[in-house]
Each structure stands twice: as structure tokens, then as C-alpha cells.
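Memo to structure team: turn this sequence into C-alpha cells by end of day. - J.P.
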Amino acid sequence: MVKKIKVTALPNFSFEAAVSSFIDKSKYEFIPISYSKKKLLEKYAQNVFGDWCYPLKAIVAMYEAAIMEQGVKKIISVNLGVCRYPHALGDIKKWITADFEYFAVPQTSLGQTTQFMLRFMDQIKKAFPDMNNAKMVKRIPFARMRMKLVKEMEKTYFESLPLVKNAQTLKTVFNKYRHSFLNADSQSESKAIVDEFIKIAKKQIIHKKPKFKLLLGGDASLVLLEFGLFDLDVFLGQNRVQVVCPYYPTSRQLKTSKYGKQAREIYKRAFSNKHSSMELTDKHDVEIYALYHLLDGIDQGVDGVVFIKPTMCTPCDSLSFVLKKENYFEIPFVEFSYDEHSGINGIETRLEAFINIVGENK
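Reply from structure team:
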């Protein structure tokens, strides 16, 4: 029996589903990983010096743990336009001294249309040059179908989390079925896994509706992966809070949609004055993406906004300035920064106080 090469990807469920849809399961085994929590930094990412933000260190620790503990040999990541720190991951081999291959797919190659999938497939082939091109093209409908199933599964998870008796148990079940889904190799198997998870989640529901809906925004890693200190989704679920976390837009949506246009207008107005008008460039994409995300989420009828940012994150600091200057929110809003030295109890206490404020305001 041929030993399979272990592959992993940035632990964003949609991205994992796209990557795992194209790999040859007879040669490669997909290993789902989780975003590193605080304790992993005590062992990994020790070579990341300087004032790099906490999310970057956590991502390096996550990949290093996958290599050292699970024998991963190929890592497929994303060169994200929604944050500047992932660009530094081009130097990841300077931080992780091990035998592995690293590939970063440009964010502009991500999307669910056939055109985007062809572009994405071309990027994936760089990591798997032995794959048959014709066979990969035939798997595009399979990949698109699986990405739709991911949205269905995630929607069920986030909507059910504040309604079940034990939010931590539901998250454990979700991760179990996520792992099974990512290694499924047929449409019927993929759909059966999602259907079974939805059935289990519905059986665990004991409440009719959540107390509140809160929008999480700010830090890209918070939105794309998860909070790097503790299970924030579980904490909010235990407090009967439904998390609203819209998908980040494609580069095309950012330029043409109403939220993209509004984000640019708001950001430009905040940094312009009667003597000069601010000129937006690609350097501001981080802030525009995050502001787009907030505008989209507010339109979904949320009761409050939780804006979380890493300490010393320049793009998030700029966006924070915009939000405060514009006084945009007419609903409760809280902001807090975090780094590897942040205390979990302090953050939980502030969140509990904010939830009480939201309850009084509703």
C-alpha cells in the first residue's frame, strides 16, 4: 500500500473544501487543522521575532504544529488581500525549519464561478504538478457543489449555536463532520455528511430563537478563521447570542457592489477635508474589505457590533478611527484590542457587560 502524502490548507472551511475537491485522494490525504489557540505559541512560532501581530504568530504556529505533529508535507495557503500580514508568509520557511512545501494562492483566484474555479485550479496545479489537467477540469462542478454545501453547513452551525443546550458539544460535532466532509470524494458522500450534521444540530435545539444577534468584525483572522485566544463562537452561543459573520467579498464584488461603493465613500470622507481629498489605492484594500463586511452585516438586522483588532494593527486602527469619526452605528458598539498577553477572563467580562447593554437597548 502506497503511503499517502499529507496535505493541509488554511483552515477556512470554503477554502479547504475547494482544495480538497481537486486533490487525488489515492495519492494525498487531506489533514484538516485548526487555528492555533494561545497555548500553542508556547511551543511553536518561536522564530517569529519583532512586533508581528498575534494572528500572524498564531498562523505560523498552526502550520508548524501540523508539520511537526501530523506529518504534513504540503501547505496550501492564501495570499490574502484582506490583511497585510499574510503577505509575510512568503517567508514562512525562515520561521519553520522543517521539510515541507508551501504554496500561497492569490485571493483574486477565489470564487465559485467556473471562470474563478479554472483560475483556482491553475494555482492548485503548482502544488500538484502530477495531477491530470482533464480530470481536474471535470471536478469543477464537484468543487462548486461542495462550496455551496459548506455554506449550508456553516449557516446551520451558527444559527443553531445559541439555541442548543451545549454550544461546545455542537462545535465538537461540527468539527468532526467538517473533517469527514473534507475527505469525502463524491457528491453523494459530501451531501450525506452535511445532511446528517444538520439533522444532529436540529435535534440538539432547545430554544426557539436567540436573545440577540451580534456582528463580529475587524480582524481578518477573526472572520476568516476564528478568534485566536478562545472559542468566541462557543462563548457567545452559551450566552444565547447568534453570530452574524458575512462572507468576505470577491475582488469584483468589492469594486461593483453597493457595499463596496459605500465603504469607499465612507473611508474617503473620513480622511478628507476642505483642502484636500483622499485618494484611495490598493493599499487601502484591507480597510475597505473590513468596512464592506461591517456594512453587509449591519443590513442583516444585528443588535450590536463587536469590533475586534490585534494590538498594533495599522489597518484596523485606521478603520477604528473612521468608525468613531463617522459615528456610523446607531446600535451598541464595542471595540477591544488583543495580543498574546491578553487575559481571557478580561475579554469575557467585557463581552458579558456588552451583552447586558445590548439587552437593555433592545
